[in-house]
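Protocol step 4 of 6: structure prediction from sequence.
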Amino acid sequence: MKTHILFAALFFSGFAFSQQKSDTLKTKNIEGINLKKQVFKKQSDRFIYDVASSPIAKGTNTFNLLKQTPMISSIDGKTLKIMGKSEVVIYINNKKTNMDSEALIEMLKNTPSEDIQKIEVITVPGSEFQVESNDGVINIVMKKSRNNGYNGTLKMQNEQSYYNNPSAGASFNFRKDKLAVNTNFNTGSWTEREKYRLSNGDSTFRNESYGFNDDPNKNFGGSVNIDYEINKKQSLGFTYNMRYNKSFNSILDITNIQNGVLKNRTVNDEDAQTRNHSFNLNYEIKTDSLGSKLTSNISYLWFNRDKSSINETFPFIVDENNKYGAFKQWVPQIINNYAANIDYIKKTTSGNSWLMGASYNNTKTDNDTRQEIYTPNGFINDFAQTNHFIYKENILGLYLTYERKLNEKLSGKIGARYEMTKSNGEILGKTSFERNYNNLLPFVNLNYTINPDNNITYTFSSRVRRPRFWELNPARTYFTPDNYTQNNPFVLASKYYNQEINYMFKNAFYANLSFNYVEDASSQLPLQGSLTKPVKDKNGNIIIGSDGKPQMATTKFLRYIRTNYGNNKQLGLTLGMNKSWFKEIWTTNYSINLAYAMYSGKVSEDPTSMPVPGQTEVLSPYIVDVKNFNFSAQFNNSIRLSSKKDWFLGINYFYASKSKMEIGELGTRQSLDLSVKKIMGSWTFLVELYDVFNQNFNQINGVQPDGSFNNVTNFGYPRIFSVGVTYNFGNQKLKKTREMKSANDAVKSRT
């Protein structure tokens, strides 16, 4: 508790300290004020973090730099998040990145921070951005130079958690007159270990499961970017990205207890591998000297995930209702996407802008799931869980945005995006559906500069969240035979309405008030139920009772299904600051996020359930009725330890209070991270310790009005000790290739 009070005191004292020194700064060190560049500022619809003027942007990589950027956080070291947002979409030089999320993170970790000019954080993206739900955008602007030559980066890193996980990466950039080539490659071998404790039931029944999952992975990926300047007005570019991941012998070992009695042990052995290839051809032409330009793209994406597993249950006590059981499962997924888009920006002599464009996406997913169950005579096909699901989707999008500066203090943007979606899915030989919908998505942004120290902005946006392709594939992923996740091809797209009011003071302190409303909200909800079916003997024959009827047995199950449940509303307030102290020896990036959430709805059926004749399934309705206040805080500190600017100490702390969601109450999480960085010319050495006290893990407790409960504890051994070495070579002022927007970027996040 003392730690929390201390950090809060440091945060709010920053506001008071700035106010007290205001008059003094006006009369002292005038030359320093005139020459000092603003590191963090608000401009129109975005926050701008001037990396080149920041003291922490030396000798690190882009991913670590993003973690130190105001309003951005990374709790697990694998993903990035904007405070109060669902997900983050990465743009580079105003163009959406052309790679999947894991490959993107590896690219960011292998890009030197010295290549970055500035980072733009857009909390409510305009109509010209291809995003969904209430996603935010991070736009990374690279430094530019016309110098010929080459440069590159070599990096090695070793992480020690429960297992030792090494990785390495390299990038190479080359420019000769009109030709620029950029390549990168990364590889790694790591094993993730997670510990589980699960419980569910009601007043008459209690099931407990505990165990672990060891998931070994081998990964390599890379990209090639070629950019050719035809003349001063025209450029042609080509991009290829690939990623391969192999995870064989992933073991999930779970022990099950029912009503206090040790029942059985379930072991799931899984082999999986993922291949991802994407191609993009880009053409750009500048149409005038004011900055107007036309950009077009055509893209192709091929995604293939093969997954097979065998799940075995070993009873501790053998009886008619507790026998050895096993099943095999094959869950492949193939995605083919063809896409094209064209965008035009028209600049006027008065400084206004018109942005317009069109996009088209054609996607087909093929999911041929097969399941076999064990019998004394061998494995036989399980017809109920075997399905071949084909999904086809066509999306046509059009947008128009007008941006205008009304006077020196007032500016704004208004626009709309119109999306037409036609889709159909078929489980061959079983069922099919067709879903067509049109969405008009308006956008408004008003920015008012009260004076040089005060700025206020209002933004409204509407978006759609389409289901991820893996969510639509009607396959199951098993913890135990009676505890599993179920995907749902019938889940509907959700409609989001987002509003924000932002206030910025002295380009250092900010407040962000947001309200989000979601129609047809979806989540993965735990449905509890019972399945009654005939009892079979060891030969698979139904046992007939003395009354001449089949003997029946009832088992309880817990099924996590992705489904629509109703609506949700969220009100959020973020308070933050980014400021350097004591001649930039100490740099602080603090933020506090307050939120009030309301979730409401009900789920009483499973549209994917098709019981076998002779079996009866009963589901308990799941009620969503949540009203909850929660808060989180992040305090990042970078301390320069030497006057030569070659030693740095990092002290970062994250805290999240208990928060209620659709699935239940998520427990308190916190993490203290420490780092030491040493710069020696072209070499950078970085030692990091994440989550010193092992407190950043998920614990969820859910209780329904009828008394049924579901609890999940997932401990991923978050304490990590990491050592990294980076070497930069060549001409560091070399201009990189143009970062090109891919036409199929809109579907990449859904794989």
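Step 5 (inspection) to follow. The first helix runs from residue 2 to 20.
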